[in-house]
Design a protein that fits this description.
single chain; disordered N terminus; Nuclear Transport Factor 2, Chain: A; 11 helices; alpha+beta; 365 residues; PepSY domain-containing protein; nine-stranded mixed sheet
């Protein structure tokens, strides 16, 4: 595992596929928005965006389903050997084009998206490659990307595994070149090291979700993507070959933690399970929730008992109800005596904790 450094001025380094010196980790834009620049994802494949849902029902304490560590990927080394200077320049020209690619005709079906997820892991971990590269102009095949018009074209029939592999291979080539372009970003100021941030993040996941992350794949990113340009560590855990699990419709948990790189304060700890379904909150349910003190009691319990907060809670109330009702979430904001605050977000209706967000006094109001 290595640290990836992201800069707000170098957003193209925020990759849909984050490349390491010894491994490749696919990061879904629907999982970790702070990891992934949607414009870059769109350059890869428009249909993958928005294909998953954050969900609201499930066990109160997440049960992890993990796999044994995967072998080291050779994707980066393979691309380094295979790509010519002309191909590299062609990709540079493509990513510098204004706007995002679009599809001509149909989008990928759910079945094709799921097959692509499984093939993606096989590409990364098993060395599966397409027989030919994705055509980059019309007239050569039924599936192609027209570089001149920024357009993907698919036939009406179902895509073959070879065609899906060509799309996958193109996305890794694209992101490999993006990673090369952004390796010279200057170091960001931080007081807490990668190891310290990872330890803090692991402890936060253990406290809030009682989860064992020892067998999960870890990704650590140092970025300044927050609006205040304050550098933060983002630490993410997911099972190895999680794309395969997603493509097969299997349930698994991922955890994402954001830490202030200067102070070491944990700002956000979130549990993610894409297999769970949402339960939107209708007007009757919303009215009942407003009268149900158990949501605030639950949030207070999380902050006091699990988080270990000792400062006095001076006010607690439901927040962002209109938006959260549509999402099937109930968020409780707890204001502390010094002006800082927590927001505990729960899944409806079972009150399972989804995330705990902390705002310092200068951000809480």
């Amino acid at each position: 595992m290595e640290v990836i450094q992201l800069s707000k001025n170098k957003l193209s380094a925020t990759l849909a596929v984050i490349l390491f010196s010894g491994a490749v980790l696919t990061v879904s834009a629907t999982l970790v928005p702070s990891f992934v620049n949607s414009a870059v994802v769109a350059k890869n494949s428009p249909e993958i965006q928005g294909s998953a849902q954050l969900a609201l029902t499930g066990s109160t304490v997440p049960v992890l389903k993990v796999e044994a560590p995967a072998p080291v990927s050779t994707v980066k080394e393979d691309l380094l050997k295979q790509m010519t200077e002309a191909q590299i320049q062609q990709i540079y020209d493509f990513i510098d084009k204004p706007g995002d690619p679009h599809n001509s005709g149909r989008e990928m079906t759910d079945s094709e998206v799921n097959r692509r997820l499984v093939l993606d892991d096989q590409y990364v971990y098993d060395g599966l490659r397409p027989k030919q590269q994705l055509p980059l102009k019309p007239g050569q095949a039924e599936v192609y990307l027209d570089l001149e018009t920024n357009t993907y074209t698919y036939p009406e029939r179902s895509l073959t595994d070879e065609e899906l592999l060509q799309l996958i291979d193109w996305s890794y080539r694209l992101n490999y070149i993006l990673s090369k372009r952004n390796v010279t970003a200057p170091p960001l100021p931080q007081e807490f090291s990668k190891a310290e941030a990872q330890a803090l993040a692991a402890e936060s996941v253990r406290k809030l979700f009682d989860a064992d992350i020892s067998k999960l794949q870890t990704t650590v990113i140092l970025d300044e993507l927050r609006l205040d340009k304050h550098p933060t560590w983002s630490v993410h855990w997911s099972p190895y070959k999680s794309q395969t699990l997603r493509g097969q419709g299997k349930e698994f948990w991922q955890y994402h933690v954001i830490i202030d790189a200067k102070t070491g304060v944990v700002l956000d700890t979130t549990a993610i399970n894409l297999a769970l379904k949402r339960t939107p909150i209708d007007k009757a349910a919303a009215s009942a929730i407003q009268k149900d003190a158990s949501w605030i009691h639950k949030a207070t319990q999380v902050v006091k008992d699990k988080q270990g907060e000792t400062r006095t809670i001076v006010k607690a109330y439901l927040t962002d109800t209109e938006v959260n009702n549509k999402r099937g979430m109930v968020a409780v904001k707890l204001l502390l005596e010094d002006g800082s605050s927590y927001t505990a977000e729960f899944r409806y209706p079972n009150q399972a904790l989804r995330c705990l967000i902390y705002d310092t006094a200068d951000k809480a109001n």
